[in-house]
Write a structure and sequence with these properties.
Radius of gyration: 28 Å
Structural class: alpha/beta
Helix content: 40-55%
CATH superfamily of the largest domain: Alpha/Beta hydrolase fold, catalytic domain
CATH topology of the largest domain: Rossmann fold
Strand content: 5-15%
Strand order of the largest sheet: 3-4-6-5-7-8-9-10
Number of domains: 2
Largest sheet: 8 strands, mixed
Order of helices and strands: HHHEEHHEEEHEHEHEHEHEH
Distance between the termini: 51 Å
């Protein structure tokens, strides 16, 4: 059986503007009217047609003083060019519709929580946040088991066969909300992508347990991991939002106590400026209000000074390689940029990934937002067991 020979590929220099110019002239059979339709000068339109003909190697339009007509080559190309342009326009429209739909879906999930800020009690906000987290699926490949990590109630999330955890994940929620149970979706997705087990501690929350209660819990959980590994460089610490700030507080304490650092640090939309000054000009009123209230409840008058609470006052020299991810429309993008810059100035291998997303901790939407899935995959490749 004889196979069909493949057609030679089209010249790579052919662009959509060439095809649009050709179709416009073929429709109008007049260069002047076609140029007006495309908002081009007539000489510019003529140059595009000539460029297309040179790339193809055949004359597509026959011009004379009084008329323009298609050649046989032009006739053969016209309907196919129309189909190409229609497909491109359809693809762009579909992408825009999907983008609008995803933005709307994110807004529908987030708006009920934002509406409570400034008007609801802390417990109502906690319940709203847990309801939001419950909207997201937990990957079916993940096994979740409870344990006590140095006396801290925790979960270990494992993809497939049981293996020791190599990542300590610190959930967000402004030090006052969120839970290890609620974060099974996001952390589970990371587990699947990275192929590693993760320790997810249920650290204590403010205002019932103000600073340094959460940090003390995190230190005990990290020490539990250290006691079960021969090589600390195989470990990673990860956190989103306030969990990212807690991760940096942990590193500062490890340095003070002379304890081994992890091999990698993953910071997802990290909230590291507890003064809230760096977000004041860009944050929405609900987020800024929530952040200030959370800081008040967490610190309860403790000053935001020193390396443990303020990484912008810390010497980051010798810190592990960091991956920082944030959306370009996130109110924390400015402080994330500044943190990446400061880390690099102190000799830290700091990689900053920016995504065209407005939502804070957009990674939560991994089940339907392509950028979130992409970010988690990127974070997974940054840390692998044994890297």
């Amino acid at each position: 059986m004889r196979e069909n020979l493949p057609l030679p590929p089209a010249p790579e220099a052919i662009e959509l503007r060439h095809l649009r110019a050709f179709v416009a002239v073929a429709d109008e059979l007049n260069f002047g009217r076609a140029a007006g339709r495309l908002y081009l000068s007539q000489p510019a339109l003529s140059r595009q047609i000539r460029a297309l003909e040179r790339l193809i190697g055949y004359e597509l339009l026959r011009r004379s003083t009084h008329r323009v007509e298609l050649t046989s080559a032009g006739g053969a190309m016209l309907e196919r060019a129309r189909a190409i342009l229609a497909d491109v326009d359809s693809a762009v429209a579909a992408a825009r519709a999907a983008g609008d739909d995803m933005a709307g879906r994110i807004a529908r999930l987030m708006d009920p929580r934002h509406a409570l800020v400034g008007t609801a009690h802390r417990q109502e906000l906690r319940e709203a946040f847990e309801s939001l987290l419950a909207e997201f699926p937990v990957p079916t490949e993940i096994d979740v088991r409870p344990l006590s990590a140095g006396g801290v109630p925790s979960f270990v999330l494992t993809p497939g066969a049981e293996r020791p955890p190599t990542v300590l994940y610190l959930h967000g929620g402004g030090y006052t909300m969120g839970s290890a149970y609620g974060y099974r979706s996001l952390v589970g997705a990371f587990c699947v992508a990275a192929g590693t087990s993760v320790l997810l501690p249920e650290y204590r929350l403010a205002p019932e347990h103000p600073y340094p209660a959460a940090l003390d819990d995190v230190i005990r959980a990290y020490q539990w991991l250290l006691d079960r590994t021969e090589d600390p460089s195989t470990l990673a610490v990860a956190g989103d939002s306030s969990g990212g700030g807690l991760a940096l507080s942990l590193l500062a304490v490890l340095r003070q106590r002379g304890l081994p650092m992890p091999g990698r640090v993953l910071l997802l939309c990290p909230w590291v400026d507890l003064t809230c000054e760096l977000m004041a000009d860009t944050a929405s009123v609900p987020l800024l209000t929530l952040s200030r209230d959370s800081t008040r409840d967490y610190l309860q008058g403790h000053p935001v000074r020193g390396p443990v609470l303020n990484p912008f006052e810390a010497d980051l020299t010798g810190y592990p390689p960091m991956l920082l991810q944030v959306g370009t429309g996130d109110a924390l993008v400015h402080e994330t940029r500044l943190l990446a810059k400061r880390a690099a100035e102190h000799g830290v291998e700091a990689e900053l990934d920016l995504y065209p997303i407005d939502a804070h901790v957009f990674h939560m939407f991994w089940s339907f937002l392509p950028e979130a899935a992409q970010a988690l995959t990127r974070a997974a490749t940054f840390h692998r067991p044994g890297d």
